[in-house]
Design goal:
The complex is a heterodimer of chains A (285) and B (300).
Chain A lengths: L1 H29 L6 H19 L2 H24 L8 H22 L4 E2 L10 E2 L2 E2 L2 H23 L1 H11 L1 H6 L4 H27 L1 E2 L5 H14 L4 H21 L6 H15 L9
Chain B lengths: L3 H26 L7 H17 L5 H24 L3 H21 L16 E2 L2 E2 L2 H24 L1 H11 L1 H6 L4 H27 L9 H14 L5 H16 L7 H15 L10 H19 L1
Antiparallel strand pairs in B: 1-2
Classes of the chains: A mainly alpha (285), B mainly alpha (300).
Chain lengths: 285, 300
């Protein structure tokens, strides 16, 4: 029972990590709270489902969903955020909320208000460590997440492109004076972050066996809390906070059974941490 | 005589005007982003409902206590908000909204998921007032809010808020007590939301946690930014237009939320100051028209 809950917590944390990574990367380069990120996540789930019905391959549909989401992310960045950067922070934030509402409604109108079944036979090995066993879908989520996190880490820390991305996040103006096309870097960051969100959407669709129009509602705001908890714009902090919240949710609610809504827990944790560390768990200063 | 339906719509819009004006104090004048205004509306509504149904107080004391309790809690909850800024503040206030809603939803004292029922319209000289009478009360509260708004913006408080909004460090360096004025903005804004919540509870006669969710906060904030944040006319017009929109577009019910989302998106993209903001297209063209007409007159 306990180990089963820990396994659930790890799977939940992995999906949070994939979703929040994109958010934190986007915040790093543009300093906008990208609420519509969860719209991209839901888009990924829908695209993944449609692609799966045509291609009948999970891995191919995952790839298609990531590519489509990357393109959508670039569109959002070019159309919505970049033109609004010089305005007060509330302007892109409200625009993003508007976009998110519109996206959810578009999914409902196009695909119908009901959940669509995501029927996949996943043949995947079941990972385990001692008494801790992950089911096949949980192993899949965990493996894909770790794989993508590893790739991202390699990209950011071992390549010139990653160096340019980190430099742009730190100080875009100075980076531009070194001959880096920071606009391109910002778009690329959006593309990568959105692709990760798309992958998270597909994984959740497979895990829950369904895709529904408002599936992004809770991640939209909970992931913001997790990002803040980890220290806005701090990538290792986001990953740490994602797994902490994933485990805390399943253990406190599932095992200790405290009478509290699961989805408000992240916010309580965030407010408590901000009282003592106003820049988040791993934030500087 | 106004029809019952129209009065109901007008009261709802009126309550939204109070909410938008009170949020405008915090976000518009003092420049502190709040994404959790509905939490204070909820605190007011629940305070009023509990005093009315459980403590047996009348409408008027419950109404005033609602404003007081919401103002006090707004002051207390402003303390974690003082430690954080801008984006952190936005998410902290959002978190407060989720936590407050969860408290109403999970604690049996607050009626949990069932909400609280049996809250009546106020009595006046021993008789329950009519819907039109209630509308008059709402309009009276709006009038008081407008007067407060005018007084604040013309006093030192308004100046101090503007200074903090434009540049917090500079305001502090000029000797403005930043903490005090920020807390004052949260206290006044939350008290206004509490009064609106009380009016809302006694009008609906039945309240549920979902009435005070984060989505409700977004509706209020949308009204403020739609009309023009930081102006007096903006939130009022925003509340009227967005409040009436669902009533006018009943046939297009299916696409209502889509239109709402797109409206916010396009407005922020092309008219970030709102339709009636200081530098927006409409007021600019209006001023141009006025000058042109004046020039025309003097030219003759």
């Amino acid at each position: 029972m306990l180990f089963q809950q820990i396994a659930n917590g790890i799977a939940t944390g992995a999906v949070y990590a994939l979703t929040t990574l994109g958010l934190t990367m986007v915040y790093g380069v543009l300093r906008v709270l990208h609420v519509a990120h969860a719209g991209i996540y839901a888009l990924g789930a829908y695209v993944g489902l449609v692609a799966f019905r045509f291609l009948e391959s999970f891995w191919l549909s995952l790839l298609v969903a990531m590519v489509v989401c990357a393109a959508a992310g670039i569109l959002v960045e070019r159309f919505l955020y970049t033109p609004l950067l010089h305005l007060p922070r509330i302007v892109p934030l409200i625009g993003s909320i508007g976009l998110f509402i519109a996206m959810e409604e578009a999914f409902r109108i196009v695909a119908g208000p009901y959940a669509l079944a995501y029927e996949t036979e996943i043949r995947f090995l079941s990972l385990g460590l001692g008494p801790l066993r992950l089911t096949a879908p949980q192993s899949l989520i965990f493996t894909v997440t770790m794989l993508l996190l590893g790739l991202l880490w390699l990209l950011l820390s071992r390549s010139t492109l990653g160096l340019a991305m980190r430099a742009t996040a730190m100080d875009a103006d100075t980076t531009a004076t070194f001959g880096v096309d920071t606009r391109l870097i910002v778009s690329l960051t959006f593309a990568i972050g959105s692709a990760l969100a798309g992958a998270a959407g597909v994984l959740i669709g497979v895990y829950d066996n369904q895709v529904w129009p408002t599936m992004g509602s809770i991640p939209a705001y909970k992931c913001l809390a997790i990002v803040v908890l980890g220290g806005l714009g701090n990538i290792p902090g986001s990953v740490l906070a994602s797994f902490l919240i994933g485990l805390a949710e399943t253990l406190l609610i599932g095992v200790v059974a405290i009478p509290f809504p699961r989805d408000a827990l992240a916010f309580v944790a965030m407010i408590l941490v901000l009282m003592f560390r106003p820049r988040g768990l791993l934030g500087k200063g | 005589m106004l029809s019952g339906y129209l009065v109901t719509v007008l009261i709802t819009i009126g309550i939204y005007i109070i909410l938008a004006l009170s949020l405008n104090l915090i976000t518009g004048y003092a420049g502190q982003i709040s994404l959790g205004h509905a939490a204070f509306m909820g605190i007011g509504a629940y305070t009023s409902a509990l005093f009315y149904t459980k403590a047996g107080l009348g409408f008027w004391p419950s109404f005033l206590l609602a404003g007081l309790v919401a103002g006090l809690l707004g002051t207390i909850l402003a303390i974690p908000c003082l430690r954080v800024r801008e984006d952190f503040l936005a998410i902290t206030t959002m978190g407060i909204n989720f936590v407050v809603e969860a408290t109403f939803l999970y604690i049996p004292f607050f009626g949990a998921g069932m909400g609280i029922g049996g809250i009546d319209l106020p009595h006046f000289f021993g008789q329950e007032i009519s819907k039109s009478g209630y509308l008059a009360l709402v309009v009276l509260v709006i009038g008081l809010m407008i007067a407060l708004d005018r007084w604040l913006t013309r006093s030192w408080i308004g100046l101090a808020w503007a200074a903090i909004r434009e540049d917090e460090e500079a305001a502090g360096a000029m000797g403005i007590d930043v903490v005090r004025f920020k807390v004052l903005a949260f206290a006044l804004g939350s008290a206004g939301a509490g009064l609106a919540g009380s009016l809302y509870a006694h009008f609906l006669t039945f309240i549920m946690p979902v009435n005070f969710s984060f989505a409700q906060s977004m509706v209020i904030l949308s009204m403020v930014v739609f009309g023009g944040i930081g102006t007096l006319r903006g939130p009022i017009v925003g509340a009227i237009v967005l409040g009436a929109l669902p009533e006018i577009s009943r046939p297009a019910m299916e696409y209502r939320t889509l239109v709402y989302g797109l409206l916010l998106l396009l407005l922020m993209r092309f008219q970030p100051g709102g339709i009636l903001g200081e530098h927006s297209l409409l007021p600019r063209s209006w001023r141009k028209l006025c000058t042109a007409m004046q020039n025309g007159k003097t030219g003759q």
